[in-house]
Design brief:
3-stranded antiparallel β-sheet, 39% helix, 6-stranded mixed β-sheet, 13 helices, alpha/beta
Amino acid sequence: MSTLKSSLKMQEKRSSSSGKHWALLIAGSAGWGNYRHQADIAHSYQVVSKWGIPDENIVVMMADDIANSYSNPHKGTIINKPGGPDVYKGVPKDYTGKNVNAKSFLSVLAGDSEGATKNAPDSTGKVIASGPDDVVFVYFADHGGPGILGMPNMPFLQANDLIDTLKAKAAANGFKKLVFYVEACESGSIFQNLMPTDLNIYVMTAANAQESSWGCYCPGMQPAPPAGYNTCLGDLFSVSWLEDSDASNLGTETLEEQYTKVKRRTSHGGTYKQGSHVTQFGSNTFVDEPVDEFVGDGRSGAGYNGVLGGASNEPMDAIPQRDADLHHLWMAYMHADDGDTKESARAAFEAESKHRASVDDAVVQVAIAAVRAGAGVSAEKAAEEANRLVSLIGDEKEPLTKDWDCFGAALHAFHDTCVSSSKPEHSQYWMKHSRVFANLCNAGFGAPALKVAAERACAMPEVEVA
């Protein structure tokens, strides 16, 4: 009797509308070393499809360069866990390659067909054409940094542009409810003090505003990927919600219950010995509704068939996202055959390591150059203030920056002047330093001055560092 009452109560919580259900799934990276992000997205397609969202209402955006990569030991397939099924089969190729970019993503989310076609001319042009009675699910997986999310093609996606698009869609009655899951480092910074609570938008992020998210199913760790895979197969937050969605009856499990389970698994059983702080933003008025209202078509139990296998709640080995990229290169070197292949793998690892050291130094140099030019102080004083701005976290009760235009322009100048020339293909390590440019803008340094500082710093290695 209690089960029947629970079921009836759950049905009462469901949306009374007969609207459509939509899903937008995007991987913001490319390259074999970032395998896990596209694997997460391919898996998410299988989840929303099994739970009843029709293909015509699903938009998938991914570079699509790993299934048939020369590095793939099983061409034409993608797996998201050791011994797991092929999650690539049947995935729509709506937006691939150069068509996956910040502008096309925002156009698709907004339901702007003209903008999607303009920014992604070789795509299907599908958009989230949702209306006031519809439910929308959005899932993003990639690297991130304070205030930004990565894309396989520059430019990056800024938090304010994403929030503005969500606000505009809400104002245009573009959905009844919207759920947004985000896998990225510092993903909490995209929504913290920016996401309104009255738009019927619920957000769950892999990490808070100050920490990395984590990769898992990595070579040399437990559980390990099958032989031949020298890259991580998934991300800890992502596989937690995806595998829970495979194993649980989402017709009865609520958003809040899934959050609790995902939070526990992502935090190493609540110990935080590894992992990140899964965080919620936006509206909490419908977190007691069943998950299949958002990742499915809202019909209780429609996808509860165990097709993709069960979920483990046991703690597992994991590695911070940015370290996962370097780990992949090291494992590729360790397992390469002697000769040219091993030499090439060694060179790739050393190039990424050298690039990271260069980026770490360059961001300090830019800050020093900006302070010296702005205040006319000695090198010693400039270095002291610059190091303060580099390490400053800021006020958690305020948005990352007060001047998003300055932030974006300064960060682009840093990337183009100090990063791009030495950046190995698909490396997004530099994004970890985006907070520094928010701090500089907040301190009153304008975008033109920071552009000049980047030019001076990266052309003048003799600038002193404390």
